[in-house]
Amino acid sequence: MKHEIIIAGFGGQGVLSMGKILAYSGLMENKEVTWMPAYGPEQRGGTANVTVIVSDERISSPILSKYDCAIILNQPSLAKFENKVKPGGILIYDGYGIINPPTRKDIKVYRINAMDEANERQMSKTFNMIVLGGLLKIRPVVTIDSVVKALYKTLPERHHKLIPMNEEAIRIGMDIIQEV
User: pTM of the predicted model, to two decimals?
Assistant: First the structure.
């Protein structure tokens, strides 16, 4: 099975790290992966997106023009990527950053109120893991165990104490995602 995913939002939302963790998780499961980030000149506040492919077979190219799944965290990214989801694909968006929701009828659309949930629980740094949990509920690309292992690989050791909170955030995301 091959999953072609775009994650897009503002810098500082954890877009690139979410993609990196997803890719590392695929490696932990001996899958073929690509991780291709793209971001504007601003480190925080500029637009950022990352393409991740996780596959059981060799990946011929990391360059994609259409995606199986799009995770959209702000309005400019929705405008840019909504039409790049393949018919029958999935679009997941965070309700906080989207004023005009997706309108396509040939894809499955899911809303996750990750930012609201993260703020309410005083877990704002785990926003991206809540979103990742929503993805894993809808499309179990990798296991939660692999994500936890990937967190140990990708996070600096001084942040390892936060991994249980990140695992909790993944489970929260699985609980709160809703089909529109």
Answer: 0.93
